[in-house]
Write a structure and sequence with these properties.
308 residues, eight-stranded mixed sheet
């Protein structure tokens, strides 16, 4: 893994990939590099207009790229179902659960879930479940879910998943990122129990310059925080191109282990991908099982092929 870069991505010809939040930042870079290696890539974007712009930009970087944009709002389970119902491929080699929101003012999704938990976890839980027949039917498929080192700030509260008792934006974000890792852990356990060769893994970008950092302050009207985040992106963060490397490694490297967590090599902050530390509560079988059950109840999506 030492020194691994986008040049080490193996040939992806014949593979079908879905990347959520692929119109900008790490998602865009992930989609671009997969397409560059020959994958057919579906850019799943909340804004189809911005997604279309991303497709045009990507095509200029990778002439002949096989890419398309399809609308997907992870904060609306009806949109998630429409995306899955309209998915036109009979295989899905790679699902990259990348889209996310960070440290937003309190709000709720179209279905009444706290926004960060609803978008970052429940939307992706539902999407993966609805696409699972295609994933399970594709030999060697992978599910990559993008988490964050911020997960270390808070475990989930199984009795208050939607932060109804008390809302703190950074705690809610950390809990949603813990949920991403618990989802990966439980999905890996269920896949192994059913003898599937599908690999579920997680990754994080470290500190990468994307729109994620400024969205929350913009929504809350916190101009000082917005300026601080922009300065951090400019002078401290690594680029989105480098920040996407852990995701690309988790998605394509041949030696990736199930339930692994890949991040940047230097202080989990920046650099080439390597195994990353994770909080012990993200490896708790019971917590993973409880979160899975709650997620099925909240979304109405059940993974029938992975019951038990």
């Amino acid at each position: 893994m030492s020194g691994w870069s986008e040049k080490d991505i193996p040939d992806q010809s014949g593979r079908v990939a879905v990347v959520t939040g692929a119109n900008s930042g790490i998602g865009y870079v992930t989609a671009r590099e997969l397409a560059r290696r020959g994958a057919r890539v579906v850019l799943a974007c909340r804004s189809e207009a911005r997604g279309a712009e991303a497709v045009d930009r990507l095509a200029s970087h990778v002439p002949g790229a096989e890419v398309e944009v399809v609308g997907l709002d992870l904060g609306d389970l009806a949109s998630v179902r429409r995306f899955a119902d309209g998915f036109s491929y009979d295989r899905l080699d790679l699902l990259v659960n990348n889209a996310g929101v960070m440290a937003l003012p309190y709000g709720t999704t179209a279905d009444g879930f706290e926004t960060q938990f609803g978008v970052n976890h429940l939307g992706h839980f539902a999407l993966t479940g609805l696409l699972s027949p295609r994933i399970l039917g594709t030999p060697g498929a992978r599910v990559v879910t993008v988490s964050s080192t911020a997960h270390m700030m808070a475990n989930i509260d199984i009795n208050d998943l939607n932060s109804e008792r008390r809302y703190r934006r950074w705690t809610a974000y950390a809990r949603s990122k813990t949920a991403n890792l618990l989802f990966t852990h439980e999905l890996s356990r269920r896949l192994a129990a059913h003898g599937s060769d599908v690999v579920a893994v997680a990754a994080h970008p470290g500190y990468a310059a994307t729109n994620l950092q400024t969205a929350g302050p913009l929504m809350a009207g916190r101009k000082a925080s917005e300026r601080f985040m922009r300065l951090g992106n400019r002078y401290v963060a690594q680029s989105a191109d480098t920040g996407a490397l852990p995701t690309l490694y988790a998605a394509t490297a041949p030696d990736v282990l199930p339930d692994s967590f890949t991040g940047p090599s230097f202080a989990m902050w920046r650099g080439a991908p390597r195994p990353s530390r994770r909080a012990p509560w993200t490896l708790d079988d019971r917590a993973g099982e409880l979160l899975w059950g709650a997620s099925e109840q909240l979304t109405g999506v059940t993974y029938e092929a992975l019951k038990g």
